[in-house]
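Memo to structure team: turn this sequence into structure tokens by end of day. - J.P.
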Amino acid sequence: MAFLLIFFAVPVARLLGLSVQDNASGSLTSVHYARIVASPVYVHVLATTFKISATTALLSVVLGYPLAYWLAQLVEVSRRRLIILVMVPFWTSYLVKTFAWMIILGQTGLINRTVTSIGLQPLPLLNNEFAVIVGMVHAMLPLAVLTMLPVMVDIDRRLGAAAGTLGAKPGQTFWYIYFPLSMPGVAAAGLLTFISSLGFFIVPALLGGRKEVMLAQLVIAQVQEMLNWSFAGALAVMMLVSALVICWIYDLLFGLSTLAGESSSEKPGKGLARGFGLWLIRCVAGLTERVASFLGSALRASATKRVLPTYSAIVILFLVVPSLLVIPIAFTSSQFLEFPPPGYSFRWFSTYLESDVWLSATLRSFGIALATGALATGLGGLAALTIARSKTRWRGLIFAAFLAPMIVPRVVIAVGLFYLFAQIGLVGTDLGLVIGHTVLALPFAFVAISAVLKSYDWRLNQAAASLGASLPKALRLITAPIISGGMVAAFLFAFITSFDELSVAIFISGGAKTTLPKQMWDDMILQLNPTLAAVSAIVLLIVTSILVAANRLRRSP
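Reply from structure team:
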């Protein structure tokens, strides 16, 4: 809690305090907020940010729900194997994914080369809202699926069979029983995807045009180009307040603890809202039954059973294929980004391996990620252990505090840390990067270990104590070995979070301590070249290897 207070709460609070401070006199003022409201440019950016974020969250949940439902129906062994295909795109660098979509949607990209080959004019697929939505949905869809899936897996399948014995049709069983029980997962997916989308700047900066500027881009510009901290703070407040309002509503309905897989404790609602919800479900259930009847009469029974697996396969291909397209381009013999490559060569990997800048950035990213993984796992593991054993009435508040860095947009945290580190001399240092990355990685390590501790049998520790073992000895010899899989998974997730992190690196690296994502970002802004494809392929290989290892090690006692 002290670590979060110093390096999370204080920097964010100080940044928010700057939003009501006059640049010249330091007195309290509301001029920065008045400037936001009065200027049509900033109002347009706010509207664009909320529209794109809401659209991304809606599409991610709607498109991801059938995939999560299908995965939940599979046996555990098959589900674990297929989840890797969802987790790899989720943890793959946003830079790599965005770079892949630039190749696909560009004027000479994969789609337009196919279109022009049949005699049609190239389509305007890049530098517009369509490209931003596609890139952001591709980035957020895995998060939605992975958030909904644990809730769906825990739903008792016998409930559907019981409803069938009472005369319920399949559509009614789904909408009256399964869907309401899955709502905590759906709401959590909508919450996380919306909040994450609020802080996006990579995708709109590289795939969007001048009309698709989002709030995070303005915050970065105000700090780096205008040096206007107060106005940047006001913009950050707009972003943060939006996220907190959504979180507050979610907490009232479901409780923030459901984000870590705990059961929802909400009671059934009453009044007009509940009545409207039940009426809407009845309408959807009736419509579903009519559609199912039509499909049943038009298609064979075997064909209808293949609809959901086919849809799921299409969604998985949508998630996996873009990143895989980077691999052949990494071996191209051309100096330009062409697909398919006119020839193959290792020259771009040689360029990467012979570059002191690239190798230095890679080694620094590895070192910082290792330190971040160790620190986040230590802090998150001890916190999860304490909260699992605690019965204090403040447990919910403490739990929410450890999830807060996951909820607050990353760019807000990064700017707040930059303001703090600039005053204590940590800008441009590895220590500053480790601290900043740990703040962002801590929730993932905390949630991963908390999930394992949910099913831990604490009677083992009591038995050890009855045999004379001290608390530290019981933790070392009994608890730690049993939850070791969760601890290793927490370390690997924290490692990936750090290895892929760009928001903190943009501000804290100071230009001297460049990390691999920061170097990739700088090169993408200046000029796209096949060296980026080679680096992206290496990053993809690293992330995939770590995720496969984490999936094998993560287990429950």
